[in-house]
Amino acid sequence: MFHRFLSSFTLQAEQYIETTNNRCIVADRDGIGYVSNSEEQFQRTVLCLALGVAYRAVIRDFMHKVTGATNGGNITELLKLYRQILTFNAGNYFRYPVDLNNHELRIVWDTIHQNWCLQELNQELTNQLTAVAELLRAEQETRDAELKEQQAQRVADKAEHDAKRETLFNRRATLVGVLL
Asked: Do residues 44 and 51 touch, judged by C-beta distance below 8 A?
């Protein structure tokens, strides 16, 4: 049984990777070919492909949202995205979402993962996220320094005002003491 999901015209017969004695797979970013006599294994392969498509879509969507929020200067949206991306990476993105004991699925997943550059896309998203976090941290440090400076100025202004009031009070008290 040969199953092919292609919009690719670059796949060649010599590119097929044997997954077992009677099954093999070939893939690029535009398509996948799978030769098998097992409908169940074919279904697992389709699920791997669907997961790869979903990973790529989510990662690209996050990348576009981070870029838009960064260019728009929307700090609230960036913080929300930061949390969503960390949650996605921690709970939903796995380098090996298949049972590593299943030799064939590992090969299928590696083929899809490599050809669709999922690791590279996720790394780019992570790098983008790190850069945004550094930007936010630097901006927060600047705001904190400005706030600290303003608070110090207020304390100095209050101390100067209090000193003037005390001097004025002392002059008046001296004047009252002299007059009495």
From this structure: no
